[in-house]
């Protein structure tokens, strides 16, 4: 990764991306991070990752050195952050927003500059280099800007180019997706304990079930239906479990989860702050 990047926002998502970048060999000298006020957090980021932070440098100094600025604050904090950033930006610097909901037009209109904007929707699995990131060309951006975003985010997992209007759905599916899986893990553990297994045994078994199934999907490139059928003996235990899942509306629950998260992303994009 040859670009120098400043993250505006030092929270969970920025840390996940930074961890992934550093673990895949990005020089720490090329990464800077700033936030609103939490100095302890910047000290932590500096101590843990060796990256530049702005508690001992001016934000102007960080931005001046960067070809790419990644916006990583909550949508409600965007406009104050842009107010602070505007006067330091040069026109050729690429802005990448990981904000849910907020369109590149909203960012561009509020900034009032011609900076190219690309939107990316990663997820926290970036921490282990396994994000599923959706990327969309936004205001003033061309193919070269998309390529830069792809280069950055391919260091932390897979990248899929989509139209910007589809990023709401990508957010509801892939940005939020890890939380759905963690929730399923919690429920499986809870079920096993309630039905009589020791907590430690339940924890070890459920985690490995998820990891094993995920690795099968990743390594074998086989349809999940086919993998499911290989587990399911006619008249056996899996068939009984799957029937209970559908009787209790698993497919409907997951459909509703993706739909409601997508709607929430659309709402976040409409809010005026
Ligand atoms: N968490 C996730 O799984 C994902 C999150 N996203 C998106 O990433 C963004 C950040 O989420 P997340 O990391 O979870 O949020 P966090 O609350 O963990 O972090 C937000 C960060 O933004 C900083 N911030 C707030 N206001 C400003 C400002 N005016 N100038 C500079 N920095 C500011 C905060 O600083 P301080 O602490 O000093 O207030 C904090 O470091 C959101 O827009 C979210 O939609 C996208 C994909 C997945
Ligand atoms: O919950 C959120 O709004 C953010 C966006 C995707 C994942 N986390």
Automatic annotation (TrEMBL):
Protein known as: Pyrroline-5-carboxylate reductase
UniProt key word Amino-acid biosynthesis: yes
Localization per record: Cytoplasm
Source organism, top-level taxon: Bacteria
NCBIfam families: proC
Pathway: Amino-acid biosynthesis; L-proline biosynthesis; L-proline from L-glutamate 5-semialdehyde: step 1/1
Species name: Scopulibacillus cellulosilyticus
Predominant subcellular localization, coarse grouping: cytoplasm
Family under the similarity heading: Belongs to the pyrroline-5-carboxylate reductase family.
